[in-house]
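Can't paste images in this forum, so I'm doing it all in text. The chain is below; anyone willing to post the predicted structure tokens underneath?
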Amino acid sequence: MRRFPTPWRVEKIPGGYTVRDATDRVLVRIYGQREPIEGHVPALTLEEAEEMALNIVMLPQTLSESEKLHLRLADQPL
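Text version of the structure:
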């Protein structure tokens, strides 16, 4: 049984993005800034935060495809 059922989705929130699973559980919140703040440690931009959230949403599918490839390769004789 999966702990975080798919599909996962991205929601825009003030200052960033939230990734939720199919049961509406929050998996991660990623925040970004519109513009860098002088003298502060560089933070993610909103565009980078969105890209990161979208990549996280694709993880279950990517891992599933990787497992299938691994099983196919394991079945091939050396």
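The beta strands are 9-13, 16-20, 26-31. The radius of gyration is 17 Å.
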